[in-house]
């Protein structure tokens, strides 16, 4: 799949068992029963108080490319029958999808997607929906915690080399959605319009070594001459104190920034800030990177750090590489159905959800209720419906939020959490979810 050509055909981004179920349902006549599937997380990853919905726009794009052409049918023909092949040849999703807006918060049991149509056309979307939303929501949820910990300081996503090459741009997008300011990944810049940023590598400094020793000043001089005095110089290749002194000697006190990528970042940031100020470079920013996560960022909150560069922990979900979402059949021809397996239960029936908030904007509860019922009473709280139309009759609804809109929604959501909901320590979800039978 080539990102340069857009999403590309997505029909085979699925599991074989979905098509074997389809074949059996076509054979026994149950394929055309009207159904509702819901996508939700039974629980949040350990220690998390909230999740962030991400990937919705990517899913809608992927849905439009979910088509079985001859190359895709050739793969399916290896294990399926002629009736199934012919049905897939004409496949187009014709149903309806509602969901939480991309960038909204979610909690255990939130009906993040409600997919309605025939069993056949809905069941084949399971893996596509889960793979996109599980990945992007995991990254966005981790990124939101990091953004909160950074308390307004600039954040750059630098994780491309720590994840699959095709996952890297979507990771950048999810991080930007959650509040990061920029990415080092150029495909994310092109495909999603995420602002790009970059500093320098140790290799560039080492490149300017010679038989008579290291020439850090030559490397810095070359970078400044090429990129301007506003560039950021990497000062920890050899000795940080000497590196900072050389950087200011070469670039002058108006140097844009220095980056520290190793060592005790808190101690070094203080030392470097004092040194920069003493050299008159009071506006030169300090960028830190090197195995940062939300806990390390929070520990650096009192230090004179201006910019965080985050890689591995971000693109791996900071310990939670998947959001743990599932896609379950909850209604067949108007009859609620539910899974009873131990620890894997589901709640039957098509559902809607509202979120209650105080007049101050602080959210206090999420209520999930049968879609056919009236919304619950406000009881003095402000009430917000959570599910919005995404697809009608197989067509994506016009006016879907932009990436900028979703960034704003994440920001508003984080502000709306009770204060304990932003804590990084273990605890219950930030607000309770009530299920109305």
What does this structure look like?
The structure is a single chain. This protein is α/β, with parallel strands linked by helices and 437 residues long. The protein folds into two domains: 3-139 and 321-435, Alpha-Beta Barrel (nicotinate phosphoribosyltransferase), CATH 3.20.140; 199-315, Alpha-Beta Barrel (TIM Barrel), CATH 3.20.20. Helix content is 35%, strand content 19%. The protein contains 15 helices and 19 strands. Strands 13-12-1-5-3-17-18 form a seven-stranded antiparallel β-sheet. β10 (285-289), α13 and β11 (307-310) form a beta-alpha-beta unit. α11 (240-251) packs parallel to α12 (265-278). It is globular and about 80 Å long. The two termini are 44 Å apart. 42% of the residues are buried. The model is unreliable at 1-6 (pLDDT under 50).
Summed up:
With 437 residues, the chain is an alpha/beta fold. It has helices at 16-28, 56-64, 70-76, 82-89, 119-123, 126-150, 167-177, 186-192, 202-207, 216-227, 240-251, 265-278, 294-299, 312-315, 403-416; strands at residues 34-41, 51-52, 96-100, 105-106, 113-118, 154-157, 182-183, 232-234, 257-260, 285-289, 307-310, 325-332, 335-336, 351-357, 363-370, 382-385, 387-392, 395-396, 433-435. The chain has a seven-stranded antiparallel beta sheet. Strands 7-6-11-10-9-8 form a six-stranded parallel beta sheet.
């Amino acid at each position: 799949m080539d990102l340069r050509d857009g999403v590309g055909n997505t029909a085979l981004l699925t599991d074989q068992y979905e098509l074997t179920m389809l074949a059996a349902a076509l054979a026994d006549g149950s394929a055309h029963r009207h159904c509702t599937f819901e996508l939700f997380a039974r629980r949040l990853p350990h220690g998390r108080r909230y999740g962030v919905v991400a990937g919705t726009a990517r899913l809608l794009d992927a849905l439009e490319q979910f088509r079985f052409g001859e190359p895709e049918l050739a793969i399916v023909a290896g294990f399926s029958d002629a009736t199934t092949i012919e049905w897939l040849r004409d496949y187009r999703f014709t149903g309806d999808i509602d969901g939480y807006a991309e960038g909204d918060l979610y909690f255990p049991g939130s009906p993040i997607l409600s997919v309605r149509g025939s069993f056949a056309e809905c069941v084949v979307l399971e893996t596509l929906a889960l793979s996109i939303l599980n990945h992007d929501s995991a990254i966005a949820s981790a990124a939101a915690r990091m953004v909160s910990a950074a308390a307004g300081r600039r954040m750059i996503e630098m994780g491309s080399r720590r994840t699959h090459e095709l996952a890297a741009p979507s990771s950048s997008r999810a991080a930007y959605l959650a509040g990061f300011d920029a990415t080092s990944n150029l495909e994310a810049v092109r495909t999603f319009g995420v602002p790009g940023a970059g500093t320098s590598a140790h290799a560039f400094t080492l490149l300017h070594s010679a038989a008579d020793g290291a020439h850090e000043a030559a490397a810095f001089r070359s970078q400044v001459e090429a990129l301007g005095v506003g560039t950021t110089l990497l000062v920890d290749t050899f000795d940080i104190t000497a590196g900072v002194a050389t950087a200011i000697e070469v670039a002058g006190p108006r140097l844009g920034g220095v980056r520290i990528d190793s060592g005790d970042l808190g101690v070094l940031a203080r030392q470097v800030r004092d040194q920069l100020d003493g050299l008159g470079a009071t506006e030169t920013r300090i960028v830190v990177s090197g195995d940062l996560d939300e806990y390390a960022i929070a520990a650096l909150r009192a230090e004179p750090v201006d910019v965080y560069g985050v890689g591995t922990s971000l693109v791996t979900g900071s310990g939670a590489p998947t959001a743990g979402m599932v896609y379950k059949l909850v209604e067949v021809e108007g009859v609620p159905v539910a899974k009873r397996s131990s620890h894997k239960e589901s709640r039957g029936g098509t559902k809607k959800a509202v979120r209650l908030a105080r007049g101050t904007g602080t959210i206090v509860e999420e209520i999930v209720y049968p879609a056919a019922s009236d919304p619950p009473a406000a009881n003095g709280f402000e009430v917000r419906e959570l599910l919005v139309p995404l697809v009608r009759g197989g067509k994506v609804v016009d006016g879907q939020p932009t990436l900028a809109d979703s960034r704003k929604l994440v920001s508003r959501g984080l502000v709306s959490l009770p204060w304990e909901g932003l804590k990084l320590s273990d605890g219950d979800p930030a607000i309770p979810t009530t299920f109305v039978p």
